[in-house]
Specification:
CATH superfamily of the largest domain: Bacterial extracellular solute-binding protein, family 7
Distance between the termini: 32 Å
Structural class: alpha/beta
Largest sheet: 6 strands, mixed
Strand order of the largest sheet: 7-6-8-5-9-11
Number of helices: 14
CATH architecture of the largest domain: 3-Layer(aba) Sandwich
Strand content: 15-25%
Order of helices and strands: HHEHEHEHEEEHEHEHHEEHHHEHH
CATH topology of the largest domain: D-Maltodextrin-Binding Protein, domain 2
Radius of gyration: 19 Å
Number of strands: 11
CATH class of the largest domain: Alpha Beta
């Protein structure tokens, strides 16, 4: 049977009705904003919930609810106590997060698992002092695989991107679009399909998972990439600090073994898995294509992206972080993984 997000979502529903879940003393409410069939909902939340159940001997479980707030409002939702856990994209909150841009820089080599683990370790080593997630408990940090350009037009060279209207998620992806001469359009990921289908945008920057997770194989049949991708996206799993503090000391200690680097690794593994499903969707759709930049364009992009990197390093350095050391640390950690 072909693997799809729909079959994974059905499997996750069965997983969430486990005996441990029915016997739990505490059921945490997870707010999620992508479709139920998206890999974060179909894979990550069920797996993290199972790990939480196992660590607490079934005393703590969770359930996912949709439509509680828009993607940019998720952190405030948790701080207000309207839900207990969620996932956020840092780029949806410009100005609120700065250090998080370090993982989004072009030029890293490695998959999402390696990048997410490196991201967590860099946070522990360099970024935690910024306290950018103050007011909530940070559960994990994660990043998707390399960001790719998906368009209806067949892009074969970098210079064809200039003048395009592209949906850009924010953060470093916005700077990437500007450097390429594109006009950025800001809409949350769940609105990408209709934005492209209506012709309001010519394309979108997203990882390969979007081919299946947001059905880009239907509205953006051509994909174009550069070595290492144009960027990566920065995300976090967060929890209400009050909800965490309300748990017993034993359950808090148990969850700490699940959260942090372990949860970040799990999240990265899921992103790699759904990137593979997205690539499968591309390959299975007859009129879809994937093009890689020529050697000349790859070199051009390396020169263009250097300015983006320098700008971000300067911005993060202004916050008192040794940004260059953190960037080097992330790159080395990714290779080590």
């Amino acid at each position: 049977m072909k693997t799809t997000f729909r079959t994974l979502a059905l499997a996750s529903t069965m997983a969430l009705t486990s005996f441990a879940a029915m016997a739990a003393e505490t059921t945490l409410v997870i707010s999620s904003w992508a479709p139920p069939t998206h890999g974060i909902n179909a894979l990550l939340w069920p797996r993290l919930t199972e790990a939480m159940e196992e660590a607490t001997d079934g005393r703590v479980t969770a359930e996912v609810k949709y439509g509680l707030a828009s993607p940019p409002a998720q952190m405030d939702l948790i701080m207000d106590g309207a839900a207990d856990m969620t996932w956020i994209f840092h780029g949806y909150n410009p100005g609120r997060f700065v250090g998080t841009k370090l993982i989004e820089l072009p030029g890293y080599e490695g998959n999402a698992e390696a990048a997410s683990v490196a991201y967590w370790r860099a946070h522990e080593e360099f970024l935690s002092e910024l306290d950018e997630h103050r007011g909530v408990k940070l559960v994990a940090l994660m990043t998707h695989g390399p960001g790719i350009l998906h368009t209806d037009a067949d892009v074969t060279a970098l210079d064809q991107i200039a003048g395009m209207k592209l949906r850009l998620g924010g953060g470093v992806s916005g700077a990437v679009g500007e450097a390429l001469g594109a006009t950025g359009i800001r809409v949350p990921a769940p609105k990408v399909y209709e934005t492209l289908a209506s012709g309001a945008a010519d394309g979108v920057m997203m990882p390969m998972e979007g081919k299946a997770g947001f059905k880009l194989n239907e509205v953006a049949k051509n994909s174009f990439t550069v070595p290492g991708g144009f960027y990566r996206g920065s995300f976090a799993l967060i929890m209400s600090q009050e909800a965490f503090d309300d748990l017993s000391e034993a359950d808090r200690a148990a969850l700490e073994t699940v959260f942090g680097e372990a949860a970040s690794r799990l999240a990265g593994q899921v992103w790699d898995e759904i990137d593979a499903i997205g690539l499968q969707a591309l390959n299975d759709t007859e009129d879809n294509s994937l093009r890689e930049a020529s050697a000349e364009d790859a070199e051009t992009w390396q020169t263009m992206s250097a300015e983006i990197v320098e700008d971000v390093l300067a911005e993060v350095s202004e916050k008192g972080v040794d940004a260059k050391a953190a960037q080097t640390f992330i790159a080395k950690q990714m290779v080590a993984e």
